TrEMBL record:
Keywords: Membrane, Signal, Transmembrane, Transmembrane helix. Residues 635-652 have a biased composition (Polar residues). Residues 23-165 form the ML-like domain. This is ML-like domain-containing protein. Belongs to the transient receptor potential (TRP) ion channel family. It comes from the Eukaryota. It is found in: Membrane. GO terms for biological process: fungal-type cell wall biogenesis; transmembrane transport. The chain crosses the membrane at residues 356-386, 407-428, 434-459, 491-511, 517-536, 548-566, 578-603. PANTHER family: FLAVIN CARRIER PROTEIN 2, INTEGRAL MEMBRANE PROTEIN (AFU_ORTHOLOGUE AFUA_7G01610). GO terms for cellular component: membrane. Residues 632-661 are annotated as: Disordered. It is a multi-pass membrane protein.
C-alpha cells in the first residue's frame, strides 16, 4: 500500500477529475470471459458510493436453459490481488427466484444501502477512490451446482473517475503547437532563428511520448492513458462517431481484401488481453472454473450471510421492472482479444488497428494539402504584389520566396516522417488490404523524396566546400531544417538524427509482438544518440548542446524504465504503476522545459527587435538574403562583414541559440 500511496501523491497534483468529483467506483466496461451457454447478459452496470455506503446496479439478462440450478462466484481483482473471492448459492437469494433460472428476459435495477456490519468501508481503502486509471475488475461466474461447469462469465472493469488522459491536456498541447508554428513561420526567414528548430523539437517530443505507448509491453493503465494525450501528434485524432473518415476506411478495406475488425466507438478496455493491465490476470480463458472452488476471505465471510439477506429484500422491486434486453456484451476469445502494442493503443482512441495506417495517411494528406495551399497562396500574393509594386523590397521577397517554401516543405516532411514510417511498416506486417499496402509504399516513397533529396543536395555541396553550406543564403534557408542548427564542422549531425528516426520506426513498426527486442533496440538507439551528442557537441552554444543532451537523456531513461514492463519479467502491477508514474512525470517535465525554452527564445527575439536591427530581426531577412546573393563571394564568406547577416560558421553566431534557464 505504500507504493500505491506514493503513486497517488505523485500524480494527483497534475490531474483534474474526469467527471463530477465524488468517491465512487463504477463499471467502465463489460465483457464475457467465457462463451455464454445458459445465460446471456446484455447489460451489467454497477456503482458503489462511498459517501453513504450504497450500491446501484442495473442488470439485463436472458436464460436459455431449463432446470439449471446455479451457483455464483464473485471475484474482485485489484492490481493483481484478489481482496474478494466468494461463492453464492443462488437458490438461497431472492426467495429462490433464480433457482432454477427462469427462461425469459429479465432486468433488475435498484439502489441499496449497505449495512456497516458488512465492513465494506474497511475492505475498500479510501485510496482506491483517488488513484488515476484504477486497475481493477469484478468477475461474476455462474456455474452448474451439480457439475461445476461454467455457464456464464462476465467481467466488468472498475473506475473511480480519475485518469491521466485529459481533454484539457490534448487541446492545450495542440493549441501551443499551433502558436509555436505561427511564430516559427514568422521567424524562419532567418535561417539561424531558434524558433523553427524548437518547433520541430516540440513536435518530435510529443511524437516520442505517443510512440512510447506503441510498444508490445505490459504498460500500466495509467501510463498508456497518459500517452493518449499526444496521439494527435502522430496523426491519430480520436474520432467522434459516426465518423465519416473511419466509415470510409472501413468500406475501402472491405472492398480491397480487409478482414480485420473495424473502428468502433465502444471502449477497448473490455477486449484487452487478460494478462495485461488493467486485468493483470495470470489465468487463461479455460481456467475460470477453478475460481469456483476458491474460498472467501475470513473477514468477508462474517458479513456474507447478512449481504444475502439484504439482497432478498429487493425481490418485489426486481420483479416489477422486467423490460426487453438492450443488446449484446462482447465475447472475449483469442480472435477478438487486443494484444499489446499498436492494437491496444489505436483501439483505445477508437481507431481499429487495421485502420491505423489509413488514418495517419489521410491525416498526413490533409496536412500536406494545407501546407501546399498556404505556400501557393503566399506565392500568389507575392507575385501579384511584385507585379504592381515598384518597391525593390517586394521583388526581393518574391525572388527569395521559393527557398522559404522549400524549407517549410522539408519541415513538413520531417514532422510526418516517423508516423508514416511506423504505420507503413506495421501495415506491411498485418497485410490487411492491398490498397492500404499500395498507399503505404507510395507514402514511403514520398517521405523518402521529401527528406533524402535535400540531404543529397546538401552532401553534394558539402563535397565541394562545407563552409559553403552556410554562405549561400537561398540554399541555407531551403536546407536550414537539416543542418543550420549545427556548427560548420558538425553539419553532418543531422544524419545521426535521421538514422535514429528510421531505426525507431523500424523497431516499433516491425517489432510488434516482441517487446523485448523493441525495448532493447530503443535503449541502444537512444544511447548512441546521447553518446554522439556528448562527444561531438554539434551545436554552437553550450546551452543548445545541454538542451539536446537533456532530451536525449530523457528518452534513454524512459526507454530503460520500460524494461520493467516486459511480460517475461512478470513485475507486479503496483511496482509497474509506480514506474509508469515516474516515466510520465519525466516526460511531462521535458514538455515544460521545452515550453519555457521556446518562450524564452521568443522573449529574446522580441527584446532584440525592440533594441534595433539584429540577426533575429526577421522583418527584412528575405530582402537581405536576395541582396546577399549578388554580393562578392569573399564578402559572403566573411563572418565579420557588417553588410552581410549570413555567416559562414555557426560558431560565430551563438546569440541565435537559446540555453536552458
Amino acid at each position: 500500500m505504500r507504493a500505491v500511496a506514493l503513486l497517488t501523491l505523485l500524480v494527483l497534483p497534475f490531474l483534474r477529475p474526469a467527471r463530477a468529483r465524488e468517491d465512487i467506483l463504477y463499471t467502465s466496461s463489460v465483457s464475457y470471459c467465457e462463451p455464454p451457454q445458459s445465460l446471456l447478459v446484455q447489460q451489467f452496470d454497477f456503482a458503489y458510493f462511498s459517501a453513504n455506503r450504497s450500491v446501484s446496479f442495473n442488470i439485463s439478462a436472458q436464460s436459455v436453459s431449463t432446470d439449471v440450478s446455479l451457483g455464483a462466484n464473485v471475484l474482485v481483482n485489484v492490481y493483481g490481488s484478489n481482496p474478494f473471492n466468494f461463492t453464492l448459492d443462488l437458490c438461497n437469494v431472492l426467495g429462490g427466484l433464480l433457482c432454477p433460472l427462469p427462461v425469459y428476459n429479465f432486468q433488475g435495477a435498484d439502489s441499496l444501502s449497505l449495512p456497516d456490519s458488512l465492513g465494506i468501508a474497511d475492505i475498500i481503502p479510501g485510496i482506491a477512490f483517488d488513484i488515476p486509471d484504477l486497475e481493477a475488475y469484478a468477475q461474476l461466474s455462474l456455474y452448474d451446482m451439480d457439475t461445476d461447469e461454467v455457464k456464464a462469465c462476465v467481467q466488468a472493469t472498475l473506475s473511480n473517475g480519475w485518469s491521466t488522459r485529459q481533454r484539457g491536456v490534448e487541446w492545450g498541447t495542440r493549441a501551443f503547437s499551433l502558436f509555436a508554428l505561427v511564430l516559427a513561420v514568422y521567424a524562419s526567414t532567418n535561417p539561424h532563428s531558434l524558433l523553427p528548430f524548437r518547433f520541430i523539437d516540440l513536435i518530435h517530443l510529443f511524437q516520442t511520448i505517443a510512440f512510447s505507448g506503441l510498444l508490445s509491453i505490459n504498460y500500466p493503465f495509467l501510463y498508456r492513458s497518459f500517452t493518449h494525450n499526444f496521439s494527435w501528434a502522430i496523426g491519430l485524432f480520436p474520432p467522434s462517431f459516426p465518423s465519416s473518415m473511419q466509415n470510409s476506411i472501413d468500406n475501402m478495406r472491405a472492398l480491397t481484401g480487409g478482414q480485420m475488425p473495424n473502428s468502433t466507438s465502444d471502449s477497448a478496455v473490455g477486449l484487452v488481453n487478460r494478462r495485461l493491465s488493467p486485468y493483470n490476470a495470470p489465468i487463461s480463458f479455460n481456467s475460470v472454473s477453478s475460481l469456483v472452488a476458491a474460498s472467501a476471505p475470513p473477514r468477508f465471510n462474517s458479513g456474507l450471510s447478512r449481504f444475502t439477506q439484504l439482497v432478498a429484500e429487493v425481490q418485489p422491486r426486481l420483479l416489477a421492472v422486467f423490460i426487453p434486453s438492450a443488446g449484446p456484451v462482447e465475447i472475449i476469445n483469442e480472435a477478438s482479444t487486443l494484444q499489446a502494442g499498436i492494437p491496444i493503443y489505436t483501439n483505445s482512441v477508437n481507431i481499429g488497428a487495421a485502420n491505423a495506417f489509413m488514418t495517419v495517411f489521410l491525416t498526413s494528406l490533409i496536412v500536406v494539402a494545407i501546407v501546399a495551399g498556404l505556400l501557393a497562396l503566399g506565392y500568389l500574393v507575392f507575385r501579384l504584389a511584385a507585379r504592381h509594386a515598384k518597391a525593390q523590397r517586394i521583388r526581393d521577397w518574391m525572388s527569395a520566396y521559393p527557398p522559404f517554401a522549400r524549407g517549410w516543405a522539408l519541415r513538413t516532411a520531417l514532422v510526418l516522417m516517423m508516423p508514416i514510417l511506423v504505420f507503413t511498416f506495421y501495415q506491411w506486417t498485418i497485410n490487411d488490404s492491398w490498397l492500404a499496402v499500395l498507399l503505404s509504399v507510395i507514402s514511403l516513397l514520398g517521405i523518402a523524396v521529401g527528406v533524402l533529396f535535400p540531404s543529397f543536395l546538401l552532401f553534394r555541396q558539402a563535397r565541394v566546400a562545407p563552409a559553403g553550406l552556410y554562405s549561400a543564403p537561398k540554399t541555407l534557408i531551403a536546407n536550414a531544417p537539416l543542418h543550420a542548427a549545427y556548427r560548420t564542422p558538425r553539419w553532418f549531425f543531422f544524419i545521426i538524427n535521421l538514422f535514429a528516426m528510421v531505426a525507431r520506426s523500424l523497431v516499433i513498426g516491425f517489432g510488434q509482438n516482441n517487446g523485448r527486442v523493441q525495448v532493447g533496440f530503443l535503449v541502444a538507439i537512444e544511447a548512441i544518440v546521447l553518446i554522439a551528442l556528448i562527444f561531438l557537441r554539434p551545436h554552437p552554444t553550450r546551452g543548445a548542446d545541454a538542451l539536446a543532451i537533456y532530451l536525449a537523456i530523457t528518452r534513454l531513461v524512459c526507454a530503460g524504465l520500460f524494461i520493467a514492463f516486459l511480460e517475461t519479467l512478470s513485475v507486479d502491477a503496483i511496482p509497474r504503476v509506480v514506474i509508469g508514474v515516474v516515466a510520465a512525470v519525466i516526460y511531462s517535465v521535458a514538455v515544460v522545459v521545452l515550453f519555457f525554452n521556446f518562450m524564452w527564445a521568443l522573449v529574446r527575439m522580441v527584446f532584440r527587435r525592440g533594441r534595433g536591427k539584429t540577426s533575429d530581426d526577421v522583418g527584412s531577412d528575405l530582402s537581405i538574403v536576395e541582396k546577399a546573393e549578388g554580393a562578392p563571394i569573399t564578402q559572403r564568406h566573411s563572418s565579420s562583414a557588417p553588410a552581410t547577416p549570413v555567416r559562414t560558421s555557426m560558431d560565430s553566431r551563438p546569440q541565435h541559440h537559446g540555453t536552458i534557464h
